Every structure is written in structure tokens, then in C-alpha cells.
Amino acid sequence: MMKKMQSIVLLLWALTSQAQQAEYWLTKADKSVLFQKQPEKLSFVTTTNTLPSIYVDDTKTFQQMDGFGYTLTGGSAQLLAAMKPTERAKLLKEIFATDQNNIGVSYLRISIGASDLSDHVFTYNDLPAGQTDPTLTKFTLAEEKKELIPVLKEILAIAPSLKILGSPWTPPAWMKTNAASKGGSLKPEFYDVYAGYLVKYIQEMQKEGIRIDAMTVQNEPLHPGNNPSLLMPQDEQAAFIKKSLGPVFRKAKIATKILIYDHNADRPDYPISILNDPEARQYIDGSAFHLYGGSVESLRDVHEAHPDKNLYFTEQWIGAPANFGGDLMWHLKNLVIGAPRNWCKTVLEWNLAADTQQKPYTEGGCTACLGALTIGETIVRNPAYYIIAHASKFVRPNSVRIASNVTMSLSNVAFKTPDGKTVLIVINESDKPMTFNVRHKNKQIMPTLEGKSVATFVW
């Protein structure tokens, strides 16, 4: 009898020790816990209760993810380049490496020429007033070779598979109707020249060892009030793509993906109308979005209208000074959770770094854009750092979104990673702690998540 009891105990111990366990990382809105791995592991068990349940179903799959990250603005690169080399190397490793306590950012957006978070306006072919250069003989990446390209090379040495998206804020002023960096439209007679300018950019960056995986045609084409900027309504963008950009890319054998729109979720008609044009759509990989207007759920309209085309979330700012708890909850719900649940392959925050006064920026640029990092006498990690970290460290490129239901105030999104792990990101939007089930393959864990907090579960 004693031997039989010992055998049963040993069997139960073996079964328990082999039970699948979940690890999790936690951030609380009150900053008492900031992206910390929790000491306890949660074992999946078979049990029955009446708690609310999140069902994770990896038999239902959706889009493949390209990555999570930030915009490396010209200003961000300038601040990083000014750091002591050893300190910069340490910081870049923290952001882009995947081991230990690093957050593994896997996707970056950069501006093609200056953005409004550069310290001055420039393009790669600036000329005195009245001059033109249709053969692009004066094209130069000299401005980028000062800071952006050296910093990018350091980043790629850490994360060689990192993908890069390029976005122009303006063509050279001599190509525009108002001959200025702010506003105006691209002159039709310069469509082919501008397409050649973008080809030259991609080719010259490649010579520096920097591959541009994708390119949006124009940042915020319906916001000509920024500096720099360009007005490009959908009919003009469609015409530019089908008449010039697509054919010129094809002739030059450019593999960089062409993305349209790159503006707010309140105008899904803009990308849909371009994709409805068969001449234009043949050159287009997908559409890019921001969320300064509209609802993230509107992105689903674009997917449903053209399910063969991809969606990307490419920008959202946090205003200074941050409201840490509010920003954490809103951005996680709408970006990290909401954008993938509505078919986006990327989630990018704007922007990587600024100084203590949110500089640098252009005259007429954003004066209150809080970086994921504040670079001053010390390095301050702001809300966007933790928002992206909760996904980027675990949801590696080529992970696939899988099905999960939303229950109570527990917004969530789930992924299957290339190495076979399951990742579930959950926020508790309520003010009170919630105990709930995470059910997967007929077993479950029962975590408790405090109010206004986020957890990433990995098993």
C-alpha cells in the first residue's frame, strides 16, 4: 500500500512539473512597476470556475507581423550621436538587442530628408530659388551622413534584421507649386523626376549598407500646415504612383514596398479609392495609418475592401508633459492591441528621442512631441518606451496574430512567435483588480491583474 501511495505521489509530481507554465512582465500606471518580469510562474491546469475568460486559439491565424518600434527622427539621431560612444552603445543595445533586459525593437521609420523633428529643413537636392535639376546631378545624402547614417549603422550592427520604413515630408522645393518646404503640391511635370529622386535615395542608402524595406509616398498628405509638408490628395497620389513612381521603381528593379496614405484613420476612403484603381494598385503593398483622427477600427474597412493588401501603423505621438497612466492605457489599447487586431503588421510610436525641451524641431514643427527617451544629463524612459517594450521584446518579426476574445475590461491581443511561443498582451482598463482565466488548449492560468496595468504573458 505504501509503495502504491509513493507511486501516485511521484506520478502527480511528474505531471505537475511537466505542466506548461507562463511567465509575465508587468507595468502599472502608477509607475510602481515598470516592465518588470514577475518572479512567479503560472502553471496551466485543468479546472472549472466562473471567472471571465480570455480564450487563445492558435488554430485561427491572421496577419504576419513585421515589428514594433519608433521613428528615428533626424533630431533623435542628432541627440544619440552627441552622446559619449560607450553610453550610446549601451543605450542602443538596450533598445535593439533581444537578450537579457533589452527590449528588442525590430522596426524603425526614418524621414526621407528632414521631418519636423529635424533641427532644420533640408532635402537631398536643395537649390537656389529659380533653379531646377531634372537630372538630379546635385543629389546628395551629405546631411544624413553627419548623424543619421552613422547611428543607423550602429543600430544595424546590433540588429541586422531590423526593417526600415522611409517617409518623405517634402520633395525639393523646386519641384513644388509654391517653391517652399511647407505646403504646396508636387508639379505634374516633375512626377518622373521625383520618382527618380526616391529611387536614388534607396540606392544611395543601400550603398551605405542600409536597406529601405518600405516607403510611404508622403507623410500626412492631407496636412500641408506642417514644416516641412506637402498636400497630396488621393487622386494626385494615385496619379503619381501609376504614372511615375510604380513604373520608375519597376524599371530600376527597386524591391522597396510602396505604401500609400500614411495619415489618420478618419479617412479610410483615401487608401480605398487608390486601391480601387487597377493601374495604381499593382504597385502598392499596402496602406499606412496614424490615429490623430478617427477610430482604429476604421482600418478594418480598408482590409475588408482590399484583403490582399497589407496595413501598417506608422505614427502616434505622446504630448509633453506625459500623463503616464493615461498614455499607457490609451496607446496600449489603440496601438499595441487595437492596430494588430485591425490587421496592422507594424506598430510605431513617434518618436524615439528628444531633449528635455522636446527639441530639436524645425520652425513650425512639433514643439511638444515627447520622445520614448528624453536625452539630457540622464536618460529618462517615457511612456512610449514601455508601451512598445511590452510587444517588441516578445512579438518578434514573422510572429502571427492569433485569435483571442475580449472580455470585460480586459483588452488583449495574442500572437504565435516563430519559435513556437504564445504571447498574450492584456490590459486591465478598470480601476479594480481583476482575476481571470487565460484558456489555451483546454487548460488555463488564473492571473490577477491590478487596475490600470498591463501584462505580457509568454508560454
UniProtKB/TrEMBL annotation:
Residue stretches making up the Glycosyl hydrolase family 30 TIM-barrel domain: 66-395
Keyword Hydrolase in annotation: yes
EC number, as in UniProt: 3.2.1.45
GO molecular function: glucosylceramidase activity
Cited SUPFAM superfamilies: (Trans)glycosidases (SSF51445), Glycosyl hydrolase domain (SSF51011)
Residue ranges of every copy of the Glycosyl hydrolase family 30 beta sandwich domain listed in the record: 398-457
A Gene Ontology biological process term: glucosylceramide catabolic process
Tree of life domain: Bacteria
UniProt cross-references to InterPro entries, sorted A to Z: GH (IPR017853), GH30_C (IPR033452), Glyco_hydro_30 (IPR001139), Glyco_hydro_30_TIM-barrel (IPR033453), Glyco_hydro_b (IPR013780)
Top-tier EC class: hydrolase
One cellular component term from this protein's GO annotations in UniProt: membrane
Keyword Signal assigned: yes
Keywords: Glycosidase, Hydrolase, Signal
Signal peptide interval: 1-21
PANTHER family: GLUCOSYLCERAMIDASE, LYSOSOMAL ACID GLUCOSYLCERAMIDASE
Family: Belongs to the glycosyl hydrolase 30 family.
Record's protein name: Glucosylceramidase
Natural source organism: Runella defluvii
